[in-house]
From TrEMBL:
Keyword Zinc: no
Species the sequence originates in: Diplocloster modestus
Name listed for the protein in its UniProt record: Stage 0 sporulation protein A homolog
Keywords: Coiled coil, Cytoplasm, DNA-binding, Phosphoprotein, Transcription, Transcription regulation, Two-component regulatory system
Domain HTH araC/xylS-type intervals: 424-522
Residue ranges the record marks as coiled coil: 109-136
Main location group: cytoplasm
Ranges for domain Response regulatory: 3-120
Subcellular location: Cytoplasm
Amino acid sequence: MRKALIVDDEMLSVRMVSRIIDWEKYGVRICAAAEDGMDALEQFEIHRPDLILTDIRMPRMDGLEFIQKVKEKKPETEFILISGYADFSYVKRAMEMGCSHYILKPVDEAELETAVRFLIDKMDKKERQEEILEENQRIKVRRQLSRFMRTGGSQAEALRLMEQIPEEFSVYRLAGIMIEENSINDYVELDSRLTVGMEVLENRLEEDLNRKRRCMLLDYEEGCWTAMISAYADEEEPSEVWAKEICSYFRAEYEMAVRVCFTLPYDNTSHLPAAFMKLSNLERFSFYVGETPVLGYGYNCEENEFDQLDILDRTKVIAQALSGRDFAAAKKILAEVLGLSVHLNPTNLHLVYEFCYNVICGIREQFTREERLEMRDLPLMKMSYRDVSELSTVYELGQFMEKAMECLAGEASECRSAYGCLVQEGIGYLEQHFDSNISLDSMCAVLSVSKNYFCYLFKRETGENIWSCLTQIRLKQSKKLLLTTDYKSYEIAYMVGYDNPSYFSRLFKKCTGYTPNEYRAVRTREAHGGEKR
């Protein structure tokens, strides 16, 4: 609510002006009154009013001198002059100082109300313009920070960006908020929200996050927001408390599961690219170590390694064990490496993948030495380092490596086709349950495989994620229903598993170029045209 100050040496006039109109109607509160310019200046310093109604001729300091002093301190303050003197020389000087309204005593209610409404509208418009400019500047700075964070830049650019960010972010942490899509409904809900109102969602999210700690969302990519959070509040509230609150917030407000990672504090924007690289490693490591919703340096992860892995030595030892077909010893070494890996500095996680890839290469060489030509088409024989590195959790990596050793030992009867069969079983499950809210938990329980491992295999063999495949199955079924039944499009939406017919219609048009009803009409005309010919 805006504040108004009334200045007049006649108290009767003060009472009359304060009551003649409904000030609250215009969002204004009379904060104080003063008898002369000196007293008014004191009240101004205390209350910093937005609007001042003042007489011109007063003892000690007249209205014009008072206006001049206020304008020097707060130029945006608006004035309404009220006087019993029709002295236009005063009016002229007041107008030159920025006053836009002059009312003669006795004050007319309608005239005062018109003046107040005009000035309130003027202030509102100015505020909106300032908010737009401020928001545009905020977006511009955020984009510049995001680009610098991801691509790097010069020291001069870092210093320039440092000058543009608020003081609260001069010491900051980077945080990653990663959405987990555990069911098709999660996927649909997220896609719907981001398609229809990403800007609205981000504005609300940033506003809510700032109630907990000063936060600036920098960008969103592939289900993950990257945010800069102020580190000044660390002493009052550790970052892990904030991160856990974010997890609870997403569950309560959006019914979404998220993981949160955060870096150590940094005190200069020049460190932003390095901080982002460390955050990216943390985000991957959070999936590697398993069900850990919050992972952060200084909380449950340290930048300095506290378990050194002698990868080269262990690689040699496991190669000797495999060459001698001592699979028990090989599995023991593998278990040691993977057990220690969950305590590594996340930036050195690649060492574990290099170890596993070297073991795969050793197994392939062993196949060659043993002239086991029947194994040449085995998926294992074609695996690259990148394929191995896409096994995102320690559990999946361990499962895969043990299976590879079993293939060498001749213990895995399905080692040639297990992956293809598993994905095919998954597609069959999607085709059978497409009209329900399929979850990764339920599907992978039926398939007897871990969630992340199955997602990796599915993406590798089909080129798309599970939910995209399910979407195509649902669209195929909906097309069939549109052409072979008289069901309305909203009924078909429910029949193929969508609880929101509007989302179904938008998705259908995005994928086919037609709304469901347009698709039915066009295909029906084409069919009838074909019959006539």
